[in-house]
Design goal:
This protein has about 280 residues and is an alpha/beta fold. The chain has eleven helices and eight strands.
Length: about 280
C-alpha cells in the first residue's frame, strides 16, 4: 500500500537574508526549523512514500523552499503553494501556476479578513473562475464558512476542492467537530474531497484518539474512500508519525483493505494528478 501524506510543513530559519513577516498570527510548530531532509528522514522511518508540502504561513507568502524540495524529489514531494490573489499579476499567476515544476495547486486557510473575502465577496468570483479554467486544484481550511464553499463548488464544478482537517474548528475535543453535519452535506458535490488530517491534534485524548474515529467513519460514508485523504500536519502531531499511520491502518476495523489503499494515498495522488513517475498532469 502506497502511503502519501496530504499535508506537511517544512521551513527554514528566520534570517536577515530570508526574513519572516512580523505581522503573522501563526507561530512555528517546532522551536527549530524543519527542513526537507528532516522530513524525508521521518518519512523513511515511518514508511511514508510521498508527502504534499504546504508552505507554512509564519514564513510569509513564499513557496521557494517547498518547490525546491519538490523539484529535487519529484517522486516523493510536491507542493500546494501559497498564492496572493490581490496581486496585479494574479490572473496570469493562476493560469501558469501548474506549469511550475513540482506545483500541484494552491492552498488557502482563511485566517484573516482579506482571505475570508475570497469566499464571501462577489468581487472575488473571478478567482474561482480562473482556477476552474486553469485546472488548478485548491486546498481550503474554511471552518465556519462551509456554506460559501458549497456555493463555489456549485458555481464552478470544474474546480477540484479539498477541505483540510475535516473542516474541524480551531479547538480540541467535541467542539472541534461540531460542524461535521455541515461538512458531510457537501459530499453531494463530486468536486469536493476532504483531508482527514491533523486529527490527533484536535482529539485532546491519547492514542488511538478514539473520539475522532466516528467523524472519520461518517466522512468515509458520505464522501466515499476515494474522496477522503489521510494526512498528518506532522510537525504539530502529539504522537509519532508511525502512530498517525496505524491509527488508520490498525485502529479502524470498519475500513476495508481497498478503502485503506484509497484513503492512505492513492485517492490523493489521483485527485491531484500526481503520477507514479513524479510528473504532474
Amino acid at each position: 500500500m502506497m502511503i502519501a501524506d496530504a499535508q506537511v510543513h517544512v521551513w527554514a530559519a528566520d534570517t536577515p537574508e530570508r526574513p519572516w513577516p512580523k505581522d503573522r498570527p501563526a507561530k512555528p510548530q517546532r522551536p527549530v526549523p524543519f527542513s526537507p531532509d528532516d522530513l524525508l528522514r521521518e518519512m523513511d522511518a515511518a514508511g511514508v512514500e510521498r508527502a504534499v508540502l504546504v508552505p507554512p504561513s509564519w514564513e510569509g507568502d513564499r513557496n521557494d523552499l517547498a518547490l525546491a524540495a519538490s523539484q529535487a524529489h519529484p517522486r516523493r514531494l510536491a507542493t500546494m503553494g501559497r498564492l496572493l490573489v490581490d496581486q496585479l499579476d494574479a490572473r496570469e499567476a493562476i493560469r501558469s501556476w501548474r506549469k511550475q515544476p513540482g506545483m500541484l495547486g494552491a492552498r488557502f486557510t482563511f485566517r484573516m479578513g482579506g482571505e475570508i473575502s475570497m469566499l464571501t465577496e462577489p468581487s472575488y468570483h473571478w478567482v474561482w473562475s480562473e482556477f476552474e479554467e486553469a485546472g488548478v486544484p485548491v486546498m481550503l481550511y474554511p471552518p465556519g464558512l462551509l456554506d460559501h464553499v458549497a456555493a463555489i463548488a456549485e458555481r464552478h464544478p470544474g474546480i477540484k476542492i479539498i477541505l483540510d482537517h475535516l473542516a474541524f474548528n480551531r479547538v480540541k475535543g467535541a467542539a472541534a467537530w461540531a460542524d461535521l453535519p455541515d461538512l458531510l452535506a457537501l459530499a453531494k458535490w463530486p468536486n469536493i474531497a476532504v483531508k482527514a488530517s491533523a486529527l490527533p491534534f484536535y482529539s485532546g485524548e491519547d492514542y488511538p484518539y478514539r473520539n475522532v474515529h466516528e467523524a472519520i467513519r461518517r466522512a468515509r460514508d458520505a464522501f466515499g474512500p476515494r474522496r477522503v485523504f489521510w494526512g498528518t500536519d506532522l510537525t504539530r502531531l502529539p504522537c509519532t508519525y508511525r502512530q498517525a499511520i496505524t491509527m488508520f491502518t490498525e485502529e479502524l476495523p470498519w475500513l476495508t483493505e481497498d478503502e485503506k489503499e484509497w484513503i492512505m494515498g492513492r485517492g490523493l495522488c489521483e485527485w491531484l494528478g500526481w503520477r507514479d513517475d513524479g510528473s504532474i498532469v
